[in-house]
Amino acid sequence: MQVRDVDVAVIGAGTAGLSAWQSARQYSDEVVLIAGGEPGTTCARVGCMPSKLLIAAAEAAHQVNTSKRFGIEVGNVRVDGRAVMARVRRERDAFVEGVIDSMQQIEPGNLVSGWAHFVDSHTLCVGNQHLRAGTIIIATGSQPHAPDIFHPAGDRLIDSDTVFEWETLPSSLAVFGAGIIGLELGQALSRLGVRLRLFGKSGSLGPFQDPALRDYAERTFNEEFYLDPSAEVDTIRRAGDQVEIAFLERESGERLIERFDYLLAATGRRPFLEGLQLENAGLALDDNGVPLYNRFTMQCRRADGEASHVYIAGDASQELPLLHEANQQGRIAGNNAGRYPERRAGRRSTPLSIAFSDPQMATVGLSLEEAVKRFGCDGVAEGEATFEDQGRAVVMSQNRGLMRLYAEHGSGQFLGAELFGPRVEHLAHLLAWALEQKMGVERMLEMPFYHPVLEEGLRSAMRDLNRALLLGPPIGERCLEYGPGG
After folding, report:
1. pLDDT per residue over 144-155, tens digit each?
2. CA 420/CA 180 separation, integer angstroms
3. Residue 94 CB contacts under 8 Å (≥ 6 apart), including other chains
4. Helix H segments across 391-437?
């Protein structure tokens, strides 16, 4: 068995792994990137980009189908499923090629192909060689998870990775999972003519925590396709070349039995850690077998409780399965692995999540529950506004949606928001930037607002929030009140 000594070994060549490798290379030339499985990042191959390609096709069809509201009459829209999926796969492959091209810049000696597993805490086995590393970064990504209840569907069961390998669109689909992935894919396929029912389990919907947003979004989506966030499903079974599902209809409570071409399990992703033989790494693991780690250094904890020379980043950490988070975690892990044993806390960005449904869904900063937990029931102010009568939204005939904003009484500090409405991906970024700058609500209202734009709706929500705030005395009055030593 060939043995090679390296300073840093990065397991996984996705977004987090590539970011970690680039960061660690600032400290040493002996940084090895281990690439196993399909090339390309999760985002490029089965995540962000192919899903947005499918959504773009759905939006085009929806615009034509709803053009009558503007006084524009068109004939019946025919969706060519083969052409839709051909474009999705073609553009997806181009994104993947871009990732592969960037990997070509890595010196051949520092790129190792194959699956890795731990031999001991410092040694990895990859193919026919052992790599002895001073530090190791686990960046193996994630994989879709389908609960056992779906297995009777047999080969009619697919996951969010499989969708993008379709050569054409099915005629019917049952989607399980009312999270971001299920909502994005479900609505897109429905708009492309696929008969669809979407089943949730816990009552949750997308990224929303605020009950007002959840209820509003549920009503809105149900105007377009069947959605039950708290579905009661009796049985799932293979029936010929389809899958048969028995469930209680959300409104009537009637027991229905329907057949679908496929069952899409959009029930989340789990860290891809199988085969790593983590038991040989000497790490402390949680109940799901994921290493325990410090989220500011990405440094794993040893089984004896001490800090390890092993780091983790990206979806493998099971923290936030988002590309920008994976990139940031990889950078933190790479910098600390490269300078080991010195360690520094990396700066974590403001929480930001966006679902590219229509209307879009977004969360920024603290949820209402998190804000109340941190500042108390009497410490949090709430403000809101709808898009129903917002000028620009009415002009576009996209006047559906609700915004809820939170701030701290006394200081007026903006804390977070949940947004449901047209193009709120942009409003969410503005709020995230304001939160990064630790801006207060009054200062945010001093920013310029053009007319007519959707941002004016955000200003309405901030004005409502500002009216709800109980502010403390001005700084000058505080000095007089408390004196020099206060």
Report:
1. 989 999 999 999
2. 13
3. none
4. 391-395, 424-436
Each residue's pLDDT tens digit, 89-100: 999 989 988 888
Paired sense of beta strands 233-239 and 226-228, if any: unpaired
449-465 b/e with 16+ CB inside 10 Å = b?
A: eeeeebbbbbebbbebb
Task: Please report, for residues 83, 115, 157, 288, the alpha-carbon distance to residue 202 in angstroms, rounded to integers and kept in the order given.
Answer: 36, 36, 21, 20
Six-digit token string for 297 = 């250094």
DSSP assignment string, 296-360: TTTEEEBTTSSEEEEEE-GGGGSS---HHHHHHHHHHHHHHHHHTT---PPPPPPPEEEE-SSSE
Tokens of 59: 């939006």
Backbone angles phi, psi at 319, to 5 degrees: -100, -70
Residue 27's CB is within 10 A of a number of other CB atoms, namely 17
On the CB side of 104, CA atoms within 13 Å amount to: 6
Strands 2-11 and 129-138: parallel
* Residue 363 β-bridge partners: 353, 418
Taking alpha carbons only, the member of 102, 110, 158, 165 closest to residue 133 is: 110
Angstrom distances, CA of residue 353 to CA of 358, 375, 419, 454: 15, 22, 10, 19
> Over 70: is that where the pLDDT of 470 sits?
yes
